[in-house]
Amino acid sequence: MKKTSSRTQGSRYYPKRYDFDPAARNAILDEGLVCHVSFTIDNQPFIIPTGYCRVDETLYLHGSVGSHFFMEMAKGIPVCVAVTHLDGLVLARSVFNHSMNYRSVVAFGKTRLVESDEERWLAAERFTEHVIPGRWADARQPSKSDMKKTLFIAVQMEESSVKFRAHGVGDDAEDMGLEVWAGVLPLKQVPQAPETDETGVKGIPVPDYVMNFKRG
Length: 216
Fold this sequence. Notes:
Blueprint: E1 18-19, H1 22-31, E2 34-41, E3 44-55, E4 58-64, H2 68-73, E5 78-91, E6 99-113, H3 117-131, H4 135-138, H5 144-148, E7 150-165, E8 183-186, H6 208-211
Antiparallel strand pairs: 1-7, 2-3, 2-5, 3-4, 4-7, 5-6, 5-8, 6-7
């Protein structure tokens, strides 16, 4: 994968907010659950939120054969994929200096329809395990009928960049004497108590992988 081009080179105003280490990119992608895929059809821009998983340098997208947008991506088109984690609100003494702490990945590549049975099953398993590890072996796995209704799109990451902010308030010197609270309000995605579906077999205990679920 290339390091940078004009598509991913960092801003000259904030060069320290960019990280081109693949390990940093992978950590952000592996923690995320939803990506936004951008592409153009007949000069009309689109952006689609969807689930994904990463296998090495490839992102797999999962959708229905009835999806117009997935059918377009199956043709092999250039896309831009973005994943963002919001880590905190940065509240300065002046409104101008308010900011957010975040981690984000922007990746470029071309879509490819996954056609071989071996790769389709790999994508199905890795997608499930990316969402919640332990589920693939516990739940009913896809039938042939299920797989016929499902499209897997692969995006080989040709180029990507990480941008982040991970520090506190940056106020102007003339504002430091203002009697205004300033600081960071951290934000975190935290699972709540599981809600059991009681329409099927009763009395099944909540699996450990659900009770202990966490991201990052």
